[in-house]
Sequence to fold (149 residues):
Amino acid sequence: MGERIVSPCVGVCSTTLGDRVCRGCQRTDSEIRDWPAYSGGERRARLADIDRLRAEVAARYLVVEDAALLETQLQRHRIRFREDQPALSRAVELLRVGRGRIRELTRYGLAGLDHQDAVSLHAAIARDLLADADRRLSTSFDSTDLPTP
Fold:
């Protein structure tokens, strides 16, 4: 049996509402559609791309001061993450799930660069993630979207 690579789906798929890029997992509609057919290597590569995007965007607003504390809090609150997932990508998931309950970012190993609260950080990161993912989509070449001759 092949290696099982979990989908990055977080259960809030906005592609069903007509978005070309999911607001929840940042995959394109074609990546979501084709995920079951991807090889393990293709899935790992896509996950790495998503992690890079999340880390790049989150770094504009946030710094991880204690990755071990962040991981402990993710486990405590039963927020799914992968062992190979970078800390800033994990922080994006934490803010997505817990933004309304987090009062002190330092208790999660995080610090906002502009001293924003968790709700404001999540809103800014989510906005930029969608914009950057949309830009990537408009500049990428997806051969699966081309008509067959």
User: Anything to note?
Assistant: The beta strands are 62-64, 110-112. Helices lie at 29-34, 40-58, 67-76, 87-98, 118-139. The first helix runs from residue 29 to 34. Residues 143-149 have pLDDT under 50 and may be disordered.
